[in-house]
Amino acid sequence: MKELIDSFLDYLSVERALANNTIVAYRADLNRYLDFIDKRGITLLSKAAKSDIVDFMLAQKDQGISPTSISRRLAAIRMFHRFLARERILKSDPTTLIDSPKLWKKIPDTLSVNEVEALISQPDVRDKQGIRDKSILETLYATGMRVSELSNLKTNNVNLDIGFLRCIGKGNKERIIPLGKKAIASIKRYLESSRPHFMNQKVSDFIFVGRSGAKLSRQSIWKLIKRYGRQAKIKKLIKVHTLRHSFATHLLERGADLRSVQEMLGHANISTTQIYTHIDKERLKTIHKMFHPRP
User: Fold this and answer.
1) 157-178 burial by CB neighbour count: b if 16+ within 10 A, else e?
2) Domains of the chain
3) Which positions are catalytic?
4) Residue 132 class from Cβ within 10 Å (0-12 exposed, 13-18 middle, 19+ buried)?
5) Model-wide pTM > 0.85
6) What is the mean pLDDT of each run of 10 residues along the chain (295 residues)?
């Protein structure tokens, strides 16, 4: 059964061009599923029934797994069985009649504009690393990019003269995102005074690099965001996409239209972007409660 997972993931990687992070997540999800049915004595996928998959989902729920993660695991299992049925490895697909769990859309954690300013002001721009780190924070907030997208950003993807960058997102999809003046100035300073110091005659296509000249991993970028959050004494829990969520929220609060924000974020479905409108509604409710004479 493990070999069938390998074939399916090869298909997703080659034919569907899914991101490596997605492939890794799907492999983990499917391994959990196979371990579950194996413990039930099911050694052939053709013997797995709808009830087994439903029981797997319920077991995940009992373990305290979030509805979002359970839904993603079901999506992986569903795609896996569809692939096997299409390739005629299995005669039928037991997932056809399984509904996705109803998800309560959790409002993403965001920072206020003042908190973002405090975060971005933390790097010490008197040294080379501080110049680079400030440039990273400015770029993330200016564009709403995912941390993994920033890690893979290449020098030829950025045009500072016209103020745009080309981002390669999930599924190898390309989008163009504008840059603000502060981000442009910060990136220019990094490219002129800091990056050459890190490269030290080495060559790399990636724009953000570490002391060895190799590209910064998304884990390294996430760690520096977290560190500067602590330095700024921000009490909110800063997660890997907090700046991305803040970017979207602040644009919508100031009147940006949903379609434009969707395009900049690289969301395939506008319903994903619509969650940020709930944040604005919560803000309005708070203001109403604070200032209305009859709250």
Assistant:
1) bbeeeeebbebbbbeeeebebe
2) 2-86 (1.10.150.130), 113-289 (1.10.443.10)
3) 146, 170, 241, 244, 267, 276
4) buried
5) no
6) 87 83 91 93 88 90 83 90 90 81 62 95 96 97 94 95 90 88 96 94 93 93 95 91 92 86 86 70 62 62
